[in-house]
Predict the 3D structure of the following.
Amino acid sequence: MIFFQAQFSHHDLAAKLGEQFGADWVIVGQHSKPSFLYSYLIANLVEVKSQKLVSRFEIELKGNHARVTQHGVAALADKIANRLIGQ
């Protein structure tokens, strides 16, 4: 099995889009499902001013029902919020 992990290499374009809307930060996300048993929520946090990737977050989801997804999204949101608060 080959697991492809995207690098979201165009942080500058994401930042330019965010700049058009007056954003300070942009989150670029992906859902990766390398197996029927688990998947990953992946998010890159891009600072608009510097156009740089400042953090990458990954949350593993085991299962495919709504409760697992809700828990994963909440955990990802907490990680992002903690990163922004801890600037």
About this structure: The two ends are 38 Å apart (CA to CA). The helical segments are 11-20, 66-85.
